[in-house]
Write a sequence for this structure.
């Protein structure tokens, strides 16, 4: 064997130093004590009515490839949102579609702008594409600084992510400021409105990204079935965008990436909207209860329009996460910054609040 062969294959240098995506850790209680996972923004409810039956039916055809075009799901989404089917593209969760967007728009020498801190997948998929990340700090109120993001746009900018509500802070940008921002962005720069938590918004001043996309060819809206719809384990998301962008997404999609189980479950979920609204409403009520309780304990909590809350703890972040785990709940820490805590079942939220109260008294 030659010396060159022994060195192994050459890999892309851009892969060096890519941050690792850190999934929420599973919960494990000591000595049989209750334990809850509040680290992944999962929906605590079982699948919506009709979903298990749809999945069971699809499971009997696992020897066949899924519908690569996701025809039934695309038709259902087109009807649900009042858009042409040609404006819809599906993928393996909204993060899968986001990676396809980068494959379609950005490469070495190009720039991708997004707020920071925001969704932790953005720097990963940006670096994989070979593009340069331009991170714009959030405001002191934990909100996107859209003016600064617009100022950061250069002739090299190809794509901008606006996470609304923002993960992990739960904060939102409202219609007037978002429209003003979109007016400033050049028409050849794609603006991606990442609305993974759209269903939890109760602030009427926050626009629906689908309304904004209709007369703006450079706006793309990302949605997912992982959060409100409770299909995190099946990995299905979608984009709504004008035809050139949607067509590019279909070209960059992994063939047969969305399983038939996921497609059929998503269709059944869309048809169970009444039950969905009840469940989302209950989670929003729990969110209000948790935020009010935290405020009563003396915490400063940004107004969340998602299914989680954010506590900025700085160098106490890991200590707080450890205290929560000791109490029976796993939260999502971002070392040196803060923790994101999913709104889960009432018992889990109560354990978290108890841990937060005890930690607060020690400060």
């Amino acid at each position: 064997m030659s010396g060159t062969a022994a060195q192994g294959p050459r890999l892309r240098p851009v892969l060096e130093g890519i941050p690792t995506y850190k999934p929420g850790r599973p919960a494990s209680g000591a000595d049989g004590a209750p334990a809850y996972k509040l680290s992944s923004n999962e929906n605590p409810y079982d699948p919506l009515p009709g979903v298990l039956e749809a999945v069971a039916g699809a499971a009997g055809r696992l020897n066949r490839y899924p519908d690569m075009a996701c025809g039934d799901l695309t038709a259902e989404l087109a009807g649900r949102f009042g858009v042409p089917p040609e404006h819809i593209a599906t993928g393996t969760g909204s993060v899968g579609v986001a990676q396809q967007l980068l494959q379609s728009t950005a490469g070495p020498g190009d720039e991708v702008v997004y707020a920071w801190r925001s969704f932790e997948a953005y720097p990963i998929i940006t670096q994989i594409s070979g593009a340069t990340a331009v991170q714009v700090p959030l405001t002191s109120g934990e909100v996107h600084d859209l003016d600064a993001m617009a100022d950061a746009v250069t002739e090299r900018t190809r794509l901008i992510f606006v996470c609304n509500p923002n993960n992990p802070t739960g904060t939102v940008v409202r219609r007037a400021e978002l429209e003003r921002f979109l007016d400033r962005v050049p028409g050849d720069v794609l603006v991606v409105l990442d609305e993974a938590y759209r269903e939890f918004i109760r602030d009427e001043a926050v626009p629906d990204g689908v309304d904004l996309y209709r007369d703006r060819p450079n706006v793309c809206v990302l949605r997912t079935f992982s959060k409100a719809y409770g299909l995190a384990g099946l990995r299905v998301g979608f984009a709504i965008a004008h035809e050139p962008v949607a067509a590019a997404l279909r070209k960059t999609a992994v063939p047969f990436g969305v399983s038939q189980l996921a497609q059929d479950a998503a269709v059944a979920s869309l048809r169970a909207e009444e039950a969905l609204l009840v469940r989302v409403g209950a989670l929003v009520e729990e969110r209000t209860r948790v935020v009010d309780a935290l405020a009563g304990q003396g915490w400063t909590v940004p107004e969340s329009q998602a299914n989680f809350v954010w506590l900025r703890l700085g160098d106490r972040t890991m200590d707080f996460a450890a205290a929560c785990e000791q109490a029976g709940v796993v939260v999502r820490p971002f070392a040196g910054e803060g923790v994101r805590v999913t709104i889960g079942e009432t018992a889990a939220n109560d354990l978290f609040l108890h841990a937060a109260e005890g930690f607060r008294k020690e400060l």
Remarks:
- The first strand starts at residue 36 and ends at 37.
